[in-house]
Each structure stands twice: as structure tokens, then as C-alpha cells.
Amino acid sequence: MPWIAGHTSSAPIIRPPWIASPTPLSWYNRITLAQPPEPLDLSMSRRQKPKAIDLFCGCGGLSVGLRDAGFSVVGAVDADRLASDTYKMNHRSTVVLQESVVDVDPEELMADLGMKPGVLGLLAGCPPCQGFSKLRTLNGRKDVEEPMNDLIFQFTRFMKVFKPKTIMIENVPGLVDDGRLTRFRGSLSRAGYKSRVGVFDAADFGVPQRRRRMILMAALAERPEFAPPELERATVRSAIAGLPPPGGADDPAHDYPVSRAPHVQELISRVPKDGGSRSSLGKDAQLPCHRKCDGFNDVYGRMSWSEPSPTITGGCINPSKGRFLHPEQDRAITIREAALLQGFPRDYRLDMSRGRYPTAQMIGNAFPPKFAARHAAMLRSIISRSG
Predict the structure, then answer these.
(1) Residues classed as catalytic
(2) Which residues in 371-381 are b (16+ Cβ under 10 Å) and which e?
(3) 47-234+367-386: what CATH class?
(4) Is the CB of residue 73 less than 8 Å from the CB of residue 52?
(5) Per-residue pLDDT at 6
(6) Helix 154-162 and helix 179-190: axis angle, to 10°?
(7) Residue 213, beta-bridge partner list
(8) 243-257 pLDDT, tens per residue?
(9) Residues of the chain under the 70 pLDDT cut
(10) Percent of the chain as helix, strand, coil, to the nearest 5
């Protein structure tokens, strides 16, 4: 089992080797994984469930996970219209604000929701992470000057007003080495929260996709423990093998037409099935642009049925962006397949009104629901114990 990265605000920093990770972070602490939480009564009414707010909610992946973990998501905020519209289609009982989190007054929101300080069970969210991604950190330089990087401090504003029992934030691993995270955790500590940070692979938590992400969890009552990983991984086959070929699903997120240049379609048809790569075809069979470059070996590669998929990104329906070809069929995966590989329910409604590429970008930005649910359940247990 790979190391799981994590550290607490009071523990000393140590530097163990990172096992089975091609891109180690610069520092880690070993943590003790918690036992699975006690079974929760998820049948309780919406009024009885602890309430949650989802900041930077996107199309709702985190909210699906929070719901599955036993929370009632009462409020959500996101500036993106497509994501907000998709969210509203699937979470009809949640108050959704389609505006920038920066412009939301938390006191007004708390009043609109009929809440008082200390009532909110969980403040959660996934602030935009492009500024912390490896491609945006200038070869490892810390504290990159990117305005979106400061959005993590919006949680401080909401925390001071709502005084939630617990907090959970998801982001890319690059945030771990950024000084903003240290300052943010300092504000949590001064407010009485005990926090923990870890970097995990979503594939270890029931998601049929390899996706390394940072999770921060904090609570007033006690220092949270992370969920233990599952013993077996979900696979591409378990997620998408049951879908019919595009055109026969009566699903606009799966049945849209795609046209490619004949020489590109010919290349796709020659890539070996079930995990094959274009490199096996020989250099003479490559597209001219690939003959000049030895990198990006996953481009025009197929997924493997028996493994989790690679990280689903905003370019997941374009085979020129990565290993996004279907294991058997001579095409890229569809938006519906991408959503299933993220862990969304099969019947999750996706707004296709702006075309397939914006919707694919929205899915690529989502927090896998099962990943969120596993860790949120640990916070749900803390709330149950503390009352």
C-alpha cells in the first residue's frame, strides 16, 4: 500500500520516502489511518441531518459525496453559469448562488438559510486549483502569484461567521507546499479548530480513476482522522462496460456525433486494444507532430479495462490530450463515460447546452463523489459523537 501523505499542525515534519509515486511532494508526515466510521443512519430526515455548505460547488460532485455521507447540503456557491445550472438540475432542494464566492456576504447567506453561528455541520469546498497545479508553479517555485490562489482564504471569512463544526477542502497536491496553506491552517488553529492534511489517490477510495488530491479536514471537537483506503480498486470495466456504444443510449452526454480527420481515425483504429499505446505502432506510423517529440506518451493511448482510468481532465474527450481512448471502441471516451469514471451516478443530469467541450471541462474539474463521501463520513462521525 502506498504511503499516505499527511501532517498535523502540532506534529514535527519528517521526510519519509514516497513509495509508488512518480511525483513526490517535498515534505510529509506519516499518519495513522483511522478505522472505518461507525455505520450511520442515513435514512434520517433532511431536518435531522447535519447541514453543509458547498463553496466553489462546480457541477456538484462534492455535494453528491456529502449527501451520500449523511449531510444535508443546504447552500452552494459557484460563479460558473454552466456548472451552477447543472448543479441546480440535480440538487433541487439546495439554495444555489450563481456568483463569485468573493461577492457573497456570509452573514446574509446565514440569515437567508435561517441559521445561527455554530449550527452548520460542515463547511466544504474545492477552490479553483489551476494556480497550484504543476504546470503553473514555474518549475517548483512556491507561492506563485496567481489571484485564484488566494481564494482559499474565503473559507476563513465563512468560518468566522458560520462557526461550522467541521471543515473540508479539496485541492491539488501543489497546495501542500504553498505558504498560503500554512497561513490558512494558522487561522483555523486560532479559531479553535484541529486540522489535518493529507494527499491521497482517489483510486484507493472506490473511484475508478487515478487522481491524486490534497484533502484538508478540520473540526472543533477533535482532530479528524482520514478514511482508510479500500482493499480493492474499482476499474474502467466496472464503471463504463455496461454502456451501449454512442448513439444508442438516448443520452445527449453519450450520443453526440464526433468527426475526425481520416488519418487521425486511422491512427486510432491501429492502437492496440485494452491499454495499448501509439508508441507500439513505430515512429513511421505516428502523426507528424508526434515524430518530433519523444514526450507525451499517453497521447492517443487506450484505457485498460482492468485498471482505474488516468486522471480525468477537462480534455478527457480529446485523445490528443492524454490516454483517453476507449479500451475497445475506436473513439475517445464520451462525457457520460468521463462522469462515470469520476464516480457520478449514471442518472446525473449534465447540461450540454453550451456544447461538449465546456461540459467536459466541468466534469474534469469535479471532486469525485465517492472520494468526498469516504472522508466526509469521518467528519459526520465526529459530529455524531460531539452532539
Answers:
(1) 129
(2) bbbbbbbbbbb
(3) alpha beta
(4) yes
(5) 42
(6) 10
(7) 200
(8) 999 998 999 999 999
(9) 1-47, 129-148, 281-296
(10) 35, 15, 50
